[in-house]
Design a protein that fits this description.
16 helices, Farnesyl Diphosphate Synthase, globular, mainly alpha, single chain
């Protein structure tokens, strides 16, 4: 091959590795971001007091960017793990589409923009909560807990539970018992949701040295913990209706969906071997996503209806 041909091939190779807009969107973990947006909107709509639609939109955009910043910073720090796990090997950094430095810069800029936007244009209570959420996800969970303790998901799950509290604070400028309850629902949901996945990805976590509960304590203990957390989660999720800031539709849905959640968690505990065990874990994992989306979607609908009719 001639020098010119080699140079052309090298240039074409570099071109193929140039990051696209889609790569940076992927860094922001858009599927996680949709749940963040939903739960934050729910917190805003069930909070007492008015909020101008423009200010509300600004708050949601800022919270979304903050979630995206957390995702990008997580992928920056965990690039060495991601390239060795089947579930994450296709992410932009392991594929060579985005360099770790680009991900760090992107996440850092998004963090600053999102926090300043929320603080300056909405209120600083919401801005401070968003800043703490980003810090918690990057430093407390990703850098500290994830590689050191099987409680990584339990404690680290707080990062994903803050959005409804931030949404509530965007309207009220404060934190209340109601917003803490919404936080606790997501906080208690996170362990059974992720441990169901961890049971399926046990070998991956073993290979990269992440001490997820199934790796450290074994599948049997993990199944027991899934049941225990589910037994706390389901009645906890009914309380918004009991306390009066969620309606009848939410109350009925939380009971019905909670009963299904407990049944599937029981299946995970009961079925311990073979393909049926994997199927039980998959059923719980996917239903847990539907469960949380459904509960907070109903809160959004009820909250919007109450504001329209008020």
């Amino acid at each position: 091959m001639t020098t010119a041909g080699a140079n052309a091939q090298s240039a074409e190779s570099l071109k193929l590795l140039e990051p696209s807009v889609g790569d940076f969107v992927t860094l922001m973990k858009p599927r996680v971001m949709t749940l963040v947006i939903l739960t934050a909107v729910a917190g805003m709509l069930v909070a007492p007091g008015p909020i101008h639609p423009v200010i509300g939109l600004i708050a949601i955009i800022a919270i979304s960017f903050g979630a995206g910043a957390s995702g990008a910073l997580n992928m920056w720090y965990d690039a060495d793990i991601d390239e060795n796990m089947a579930r994450t090997a296709a992410r932009p950094i392991p594929r060579g589409r985005v360099t770790p430095n680009e991900a760090l810069q992107f996440g850092g800029v998004l963090s600053v923009i999102s926090v300043l936007t929320l603080g300056v244009l909405v209120n600083w209570v919401a801005g401070a909560l968003l800043a703490f959420t980003i810090f918690f996800y990057l430093v407390i969970y990703t850098m500290w807990l994830k590689r050191r303790t099987p409680q990584n998901i339990v404690i680290g799950g707080a990062a994903g539970a803050f959005p409804p509290m931030i949404g509530w604070a965007a309207v009220t400028g404060s934190v209340s018992v109601e917003s803490i309850l919404l936080f606790l629902i997501i906080f208690m949901w996170t362990p059974p949701h992720f441990w169901a996945l961890a049971l399926l990805r046990l070998r991956d976590y073993e290979r990269v040295g992440v001490p997820m509960l199934p790796v450290v304590a074994g599948p049997h203990e993990t199944r027991k913990q899934i049941i225990l957390y589910s037994l706390i989660l389901v009645p906890l999720a009914v309380l918004p209706s009991v306390l009066g800031f969620a309606g009848i539709a939410y109350g009925v849905a939380s009971v019905v969906l909670g009963a299904i959640f407990l049944w599937l968690a029981f299946d995970v505990w009961r079925i311990t071997e073979g393909r049926e065990a994997d199927k039980a874990c998959k059923r719980l994992f996917w239903f847990s996503i539907l469960y949380l989306y459904a509960l907070f979607a109903i809160l959004v609908v009820e909250g919007a209806a109450n504001r329209i009719l008020a």
